[in-house]
Structure formats: structure tokens, C-alpha cells
């Protein structure tokens, strides 16, 4: 299942390599803090390009031009002869106040257009794209004083303050070890609201609660994908990586000044999103484990709608770890919430897998048996048979339980191999697309060869830690990301919402991603 012909020519390999680098740079620029130099609001595109080259050269380890001159071929589009004719076009640079603009998650737009949104259900933190006349057609500048990002793995623990000039969180959460401002850097000690003494110790304690061997949460490769809801600056996800677990760290662009930008600058997988009214952009049965530590979500609202969305996303036998006062406090209100929440998850057929101190871990049933044994009329109901649990783009959440497919019900689980074998093992849901195991294996082999060639071509300019955040803009089955497994990178696999929804194959391989319309 290739996404383009491979004729072996050096020219096409070079073009492909440039596309990979462009995609990576674009991801850092839009999501993880750009690697471009700072610009004043009146700067020309040519000057912006020169700054880009200087900082880009530094990032890739190349020496800058000693005379300050810009290579004409890299600063502008040129017209060539024959088939290579390119029409020159330049784009203006947005002024500095738009350095953190996220077009469809722009709270200023919501206020300016007086959108009538229900704040009580977080609708204002969901995607609301501007009309055509209000869209920007300019290059987003980085913050003033932006520096080349600190490389992974050092970036897990510290970033340049200039790259994300927000220190509010450091003061607000100073007693919880979220982050600390130290001179020109922001340091992340690994703490969180619930785990002041470090995410690593907290993760090990959860593994111990579940009796996993060696207090390792990956459970010998059976637990690979995690959803961390209300993730803060993503320290929970950061410390899972050393256990071969990859987390989708989720948080909204709220009053905490874009926590996700901190996560991406650190080199940690993260995504801007909220449990509001729409389904999260992930297929059903994507995660083995969900986590909420003091995430301040009312799980009881709207007939348990948000908890049922987590249920849709969890695999058979998946876990939900909940660290919150309701799990241990003895005051009247917390006891009421705990009682009602226990009743709700009981009707959803979840069981308490472990409970200790301030944390409870529930486990989803491995089969449909419990659902079938419930009393008639029990709520929440099962979803209708015509509901597609993998339809997510712009689809409202539904207050119903998504039953398992016949395959998963018979298998009493997802049928996935432990990590890392699942990366190259044909996932059971291939059959949903009519794909054969042979097609999957050939696609995996094809992209392994291509990535090896990309890396060879780029090797004069990059080292083992040059790249970190990568986006595959049309990921298909995720074979490009699979081929990068031995590199110190992570890949945001994007599946266009108007094509085959192969994102579930990507998650079944132990990778992560999202769907998008590139609007």
C-alpha cells in the first residue's frame, strides 16, 4: 500500500527527503514551537527567509554563512525551464501578536464573533474555525528571542523560556513541582498536582497496585498506548516513554496558557483537545490505559457522557486510573460523588482493579457478557448497531456503551501482540478495509527501505538527536512511523478525515495519531 511510486531515481529520493524534513519543520513550527528566527511585524519575506536559514542551519548542525549572504535558491521560488516551472509567490509575515495563533482554537475569535457557545460543557475549547474572510494568509512568527530548541532527551527536563514565554504556571503550581523558572530556562522537575514527588514514582506505584512485574506499567509489552486527560505539562507522559509506553497527552488551550506548547517543546507527544461535546479524534479501542490526575472533570455530567467517551476509547480489559479527592476524601460532597461515580461505572460493567490511598484503577470488561446480563432498561444503554464508533470528526459524543465486535468478543481482548512485536504484526482490524496480511507486510517493508534512504541522504546534516517531533501528514497504515522506531523520534500520524479511517490500524500497531481535515 504505497503512497507514491518508487523508481529509484536520485532526484525523486531527494524530493521525498525534502518533504520529510519540511513536514518535521512544519510540525515544530505549528505545534511544537517553530525553529524559525524571530521577526518584527514589518519584516519582509526575504528577511524572514534569511533568519530562517540561519536558525535552521544551526538546528541541523551546519555552519552559517560567514558573510551573511543568503543563497538565492533557498530564499525564494525561482522559475526554471520545462517541467520545473514554478510560479514565484511570497507570503507576508503575520505581526508579532499572532506568534501563538491557533486558527481553529482561537479564543479571541470566539469573543469577537460573539459565538453562542455553552461554556458549562467546554464548547468554547473545541474547534471553531474562522470564516473565509477572517482567515490568515501569512506566516506565523515565533516569539521574540526564540532559540534553537534544546535537544532530546535533555529537553524533557528543561526548555528555553524565550520559546514559550509563559511563567504563570510556574508561580501557580510552585508547590507542586510542575515547572520552575531558572534564569533563561524553564525546568521541569517531573512533578504534578497529584504526584509532587515525581511522575516516575507515581507510575511505578500504579504498576505495583496492578501487580505488574517489576513495577513496570508496560506489563511485559501488553500496555502500550495511554490517554492522559488534563495532562498539564505532560510529565506523566514524559516519564512513561522510558517504559516503552507512548501517551497521547491531552489538554485544552485554556487559562493555563497552552500547556500543550510546553509538552511539545519538551519533545513529548501531546494534542490540544477537550472532553466537551464532540468525540475525541481517535478511533474506538485505541488505548490500553486512560489517566486522570486531578483533571477537574465532572464525570457524572450528562448521564456520564464523558466517562462513556473514555469507555469507547479503551480496549477490552483496558484500565482507567483516577487520582482525585473523590477517591479518598471523607467530606459529604466527595462521598456523594464517589458513591454516584461507583454506581455509574458499575452499570458500565467496570470493576475496581485496585484502590490505594488517593488513586483508584477501574478495569473495563474483556467481553460483552456483562452487558448482556444487565437488567432490561439499565442505563447507560448499549449504542445502536448502526452507530459507527470510529466516526469521530465533528461527531457528537453519545451517552451509550459501545459493545465489542464479534472478533474482540470471541478473542476476549483486542488480539494484539505485545509491544514491540505488534508494530510489525498484521493487526486484526486490517479486515475492516479488505487489506490482506501480505499488503500490510509489503507496505511495512517498502517504508523501511524508504526511511533508510531518507536517513542516508540526510545524514550529512543530522545526528541521532537532531529530529524529535515528526508529523506524517497522510499516514495510511503508519509504516513510515514504524520504520523510525529505532530513531529518537516520535511521530504524530495524521489520517485525513475524508479518506479511509486507517487510524485504528496505527493505534493497533502501538503508535499514535489523529484525524484531521486540514481546514
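-> sequence recovered:
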Amino acid at each position: 500500500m504505497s503512497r507514491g511510486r518508487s523508481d529509484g531515481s536520485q532526484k525523486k529520493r531527494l524530493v521525498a527527503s525534502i518533504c520529510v524534513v519540511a513536514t518535521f519543520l512544519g510540525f515544530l513550527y505549528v505545534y511544537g514551537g517553530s525553529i524559525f528566527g524571530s521577526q518584527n511585524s514589518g519584516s519582509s519575506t526575504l528577511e524572514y527567509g534569511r533568519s530562517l536559514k540561519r536558525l535552521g542551519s544551526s538546528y541541523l548542525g551546519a555552519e552559517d554563512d560567514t558573510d551573511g549572504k543568503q543563497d538565492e535558491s533557498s530564499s525564494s521560488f525561482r522559475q526554471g525551464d520545462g517541467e520545473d516551472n514554478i510560479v514565484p509567490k511570497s507570503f507576508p509575515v503575520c505581526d508579532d501578536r499572532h506568534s501563538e495563533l491557533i486558527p481553529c482554537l482561537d479564543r479571541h475569535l470566539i469573543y469577537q464573533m460573539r459565538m453562542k457557545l455553552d461554556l458549562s460543557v467546554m464548547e468554547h475549547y473545541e474547534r471553531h474555525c474562522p470564516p473565509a474572510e477572517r482567515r490568515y494568509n501569512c506566516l506565523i512568527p515565533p516569539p521574540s528571542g526564540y532559540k534553537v530548541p534544546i535537544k532530546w532527551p535533555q529537553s524533557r527536563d528543561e526548555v528555553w523560556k524565550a520559546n514559550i514565554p509563559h511563567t504563570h504556571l510556574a508561580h501557580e503550581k510552585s508547590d507542586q513541582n510542575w515547572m520552575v523558572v531558572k534564569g533563561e530556562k524553564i525546568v521541569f522537575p517531573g512533578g504534578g498536582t497529584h504526584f509532587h514527588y515525581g511522575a516516575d514514582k507515581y507510575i511505578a506505584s500504579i504498576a505495583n497496585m496492578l501487580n505488574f512485574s517489576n513495577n513496570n506499567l508496560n506489563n511485559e509489552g501488553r500496555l502500550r498506548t495511554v490517554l492522559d486527560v488534563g495532562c498539564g505539562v505532560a510529565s506523566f507522559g514524559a516519564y512513561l516513554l522510558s517504559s516503552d509506553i507512548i501517551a497521547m497527552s491531552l489538554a485544552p488551550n485554556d487559562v493555563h496558557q497552552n500547556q500543550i506548547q510546553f509538552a511539545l517543546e519538551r519533545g513529548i507527544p501531546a494534542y490540544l483537545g477537550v472532553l466537551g461535546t464532540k468525540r475525541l479524534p481517535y478511533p474506538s479501542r485505541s488505548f490500553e490505559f486512560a489517566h486522570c490526575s486531578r483533571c477537574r472533570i465532572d464525570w457524572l455530567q450528562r448521564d456520564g457522557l464523558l466517562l462513556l467517551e473514555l469507555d469507547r476509547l479503551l480496549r477490552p480489559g483496558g484500565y482507567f486510573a483516577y487520582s482525585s479527592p473523590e477517591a479518598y476524601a471523607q467530606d459529604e460532597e466527595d462521598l456523594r460523588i464517589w458513591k454516584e461515580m461507583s454506581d455509574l461505572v458499575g452499570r458500565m460493567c467496570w470493576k475496581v482493579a485496585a484502590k490505594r490511598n488517593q488513586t483508584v484503577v477501574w478495569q473495563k470488561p474483556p467481553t460483552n457478557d456483562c452487558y448482556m446480563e444487565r437488567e432490561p432498561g439499565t442505563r447507560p444503554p448499549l449504542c445502536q448497531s448502526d452507530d459507527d464508533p470510529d466516526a469521530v470528526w465533528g461527531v457528537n459524543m453519545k451517552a451509550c456503551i459501545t459493545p465489542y465486535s464479534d472478533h474482540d468478543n470471541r478473542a476476549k481482548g483486542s488480539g494484539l501482540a505485545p509491544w514491540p512485536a505488534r508494530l510489525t504484526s498484521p493487526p486484526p482490524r486490517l479486515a475492516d478495509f479488505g487489506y490482506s496480511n501480505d499488503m500490510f507486510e509489503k507496505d511495512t517493508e517498502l517504508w523501511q527501505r524508504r526511511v533508510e534512504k531518507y536517513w542516508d541522504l540526510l545524514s550529512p546534516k543530522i545526528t541521532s538527536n537532531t529530529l524529535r517531533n515528526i508529523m506524517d501528514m497522510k499516514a495510511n497504515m503508519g509504516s513510515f512511523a514504524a520504520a523510525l522506531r529505532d530513531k529518537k523520534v516520535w511521530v504524530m500520524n495524521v489520517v485525513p478525515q475524508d479518506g479511509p479511517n486507517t487510524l485504528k490500524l496505527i493505534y493497533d500497531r502501538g503508535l499514535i495519531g489523529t484525524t484531521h481535515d486540514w481546514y
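The two ends are 26 Å apart (CA to CA).
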